[in-house]
Design goal:
Length: 213
């Protein structure tokens, strides 16, 4: 019997849903798209870190000593999948300013839909860290699976995947390849089209973010 897959969390907070709808709109400018992705990144960071363990710490307020709480345990690594995953980075780093960053450069071959690696740079000690893999789009999941394979080859054991839109097909594939990796997304859309695009989706996230085509 295969192990049960880790949890999928749909972040249905009204601010996230409102901003996501603005992003999907074909008339949204590159500037607006980028700003919204950054803002949603901040809101998703809040959700994906909700269960991080805390430990007591004694501090002095101006009036007296007290026992406060601080984040304990493993240090965080943010691992954006280039290019579009970078859109989450600033928003997340503004809440987690000490996090390390691992850049995973992948592009999807338009004919085969397979992920092709062109860059990888990561802290060396991933075994002792919690790694948040960032990519707005989980379509076939070929990119997500390849990125997680690569991060695991550098020792990562505690990984979480954060996206904006997920296709049901991508969730199934990610859970099959890496069943222990939990997933956070702002929405689960209907399906993939014949070109591997998420529908209704928002189009090509990298192109919309950087104004390329
Ligand atoms: C997009 C997106 C994901 C990938 C998702 O990247 O940002 O990385 O496709 O598709 P998948 O789940 O089917 O692998 P793309 O390859 O277009 O590169 P870009 O971010 O540089 O535009
Ligand atoms: N990559 C994107 O940017 N959008 C999709 O819908 C699928 C893959």
């Amino acid at each position: 019997m295969t192990a049960a897959a880790a949890k999928v969390t749909v972040v249905d907070h009204p601010l996230v849903q409102h901003k996501l709808t603005l992003m999907r709109d074909v008339s949204r400018s590159t500037k607006g798209f980028r700003e919204l992705l950054n803002e949603i990144g901040m809101l998703l960071a809040y959700e994906v870190t909700r269960d991080l363990p805390l430990e007591p710490v004694t501090i002095e307020t101006p009036l007296q000593p007290m026992e406060g709480r601080q984040i304990a345990g493993k240090k965080l690594v943010l691992a954006p999948i280039l290019r579009a995953g970078v859109g989450f980075l600033d928003g997340m780093l503004s809440l987690m300013p000490s996090a390390r960053v691992a850049h995973v450069g992948l592009y999807r071959d338009p004919d085969t839909l397979q992920a092709v690696e062109y860059y990888f740079k990561s802290p060396s000690d991933l075994a002792d860290r919690t790694v948040l893999v960032l990519d707005p789009m989980l379509a076939t999941a070929n990119s997500a699976v390849a990125a997680i394979d690569r991060l695991k080859s550098r020792g990562a054991k505690d990984l979480r995947f954060v996206c904006l839109l997920a296709a049901p097909e991508g969730i199934a594939r990610l859970q099959e390849a890496h069943p222990e990796v939990p997933l956070w997304t702002a929405a689960i859309d209907d399906r993939l089209n014949d070109h591997g695009y998420i529908t209704p989706g928002l189009g090509d996230a990298g192109d919309r973010m950087y104004g390329t085509r």
